[in-house]
Amino acid sequence: MNAYQPQPEASRRILDDVLRASEQLAALPAFPDFDAALQQQVLEEAGKFVGELVAPLNRSGDEVGAQFNAGTVTMPPGFRESYQAFWQAGWPSLAGAVEDGGQGLPTVVEAVLHEMLNAANHGWTMAPGLLHGAAECIRHHASAELKARYLPRLVSGEWLATMCLTEPHAGSDLGLVRTKATPLADGRFALSGTKIFISGGEHDLTDNIVHLVLARLPDAPPGPKGLSLFLVPKFEPDGTRSAVHCERIEEKMGIHASPTCVMRFDEAAASLVGEPGKGLNAMFVMMNAARLLVGLQGIGLLDAAWQKANAYAQERRQMRAPGSASQAGQADPVALHPAIQRILATQRAWIDAGRVIAYRTAIELDLQKHHPEAAKREAAARWCSLVTPVLKSAWTEQAFAGASACLQVFGGHGYVREWGIEQHVRDARVAMIYEGTNEIQAIDLLVRKTLPDGAAALTTLLAELADDVGQSARTRQALQAFSGFVQKQLLPNTRGAGAAPDQPFWLADDFLRALALLLMAWAWDRMATAPHCDATAHAAFWRWVWPELDMRIAMMNATLSAPEHQPAML
């Protein structure tokens, strides 16, 4: 019961029956040889690898954890061996560009793999989690020399990468970064500074680690526009160890198997990636790729918690369930009790709808990149821009809340380590924080992507969803009503004369949550017409999740009608 079991067939049904993924992707010039059979083969083999080599290491990885000793980090038993098998089997290179040594498969195949990996072993999967983003960053912004040296080994996964942004005084506010980059005579730069919260900053999984580091040139202006991006390898091409040191690893609530490092750069030789002062532009290629994967983390972790709770509920007998046919004095499986059924069905509703939304987002990434029609590329870019922050925020929040609800199924047994459910609660919590906190995702959605264009992109997206739900009047009317709310209530009160400048920031979290619920309704309408629809989870969504939409709109209306917002007393 402690080991997650991948369910590739469940993912295949959503890809084929709900989204017609292989049909859409095979029509793109980039994937002429891709079809449903290849998709199924890759998913089945991925499920075998994850279930046999990665999932069994989850419990021991949590208990042993990454071990720090005098600047070196040793990963838990079995981690290095399984990671070496992972990259040598070609799994990191699934969606990599063929010209860089990748296999050139669609992004959605990689997305399903990462969902499985995170569900199986969140700590292990932190290591390769940044590979795709790092490779894309180098591919689009690095010099030809850096590409030749580093890109093939990152695409293959032979080497791993980090993203070094955060400093002790500069978390989400990257404009406060102080790490300095001083020009050297050979055209490189000497980096000096300390970075914190660096996932995989030091480990023994691979023979080299590629650090991508935000730093400030001597003549750089203050703030985010003064930041440049640099590459520092753990080992130089001649085998010399770079002047970058792991000072310690953090003692954390969860993901104990992933070393979260404090990294010190002591005039470490670094190469510039991209243009001076354009570091954030280059780094956001990496961060945006990571945000979809973090949303998939939420879905995967929630599914892993659900699997444990569902299995336990079938076995554990307690009391006679209401309406049970059992004889008096007999105990029924707790799965027959309505309270437990509600917990399990509600989390299943989130998992299945999340998969539809996340898989479509991965498909849209390839449509944005490869579709021959400009209008299709524009529509795909709109979907990815608006939906990615929703996925990252709503599904990581639900992973934590839903894992806690699944723990409840176990009663007191869930609170002890024996059953493994409490690890999911601990592990899931961090996903609400990294790659941009969930509050920042909400601000990004409303303040940066909705208000500046007068909600034009959002209105178009809502209309497209309404056209796509077919005979479901309930969802179509809700989408149209929300569009009306945005135009008649939200925009006038946040952009009109006399609107308080902080007004949108008070609304952002509720706004994102409302859009998440509307996307879920669209997803469940799509699933309802497909074979093998889970009728129990479908009903659970409409009964116990959907009514939250009215509450979120009421909360936004209450905020909009408030005369003013008083700051908290400090």
Structural notes for this entry:
The protein is an alpha+beta fold and 570 residues long. Among the domains are: 8-150, Butyryl-Coa Dehydrogenase, subunit A, domain 1 (Orthogonal Bundle); 160-276, Butyryl-CoA Dehydrogenase, subunit A, domain 2, CATH 2.40.110; 438-562, no CATH class. Helices cover 54% and strands 11% of the residues. Helix 10 (279-315) runs antiparallel to helix 11 (338-370) and helix 11 packs across helix 17. The N and C termini lie far apart (48 Å). The mean pLDDT is 94.
How many strand units?
A: 9
In the CATH scheme, what's the topology name of the domain at 8-150?
Answer: Butyryl-Coa Dehydrogenase, subunit A, domain 1
Shape category = globular
Number of helices: 19
Could you tell me how far the N terminus lies from the C terminus, measured between alpha carbons in angstroms?
48 Å
Radius of gyration over all CA atoms, rounded: 24 Å
User: What would CATH call the homologous superfamily of the domain at 8-150?
Assistant: Acyl-CoA dehydrogenase/oxidase, N-terminal domain
Strand content: 5-15%
Helix proportion range: 40-55%
CATH-derived architecture of the domain at 8-150 = Orthogonal Bundle
Which series of helices and strands comes N to C? Answer: HHHHEEHHHHHEEEEEEEHHHHHHHHHH
- By oligomeric state, this entry counts as single chain
Structural class: alpha+beta
Report the uncertain regions.
Answer: none
Q: Biggest sheet, open or closed, and with what strands and sense?
A: 7 strands, mixed
CATH level-1 class of the domain at 8-150:
Mainly Alpha
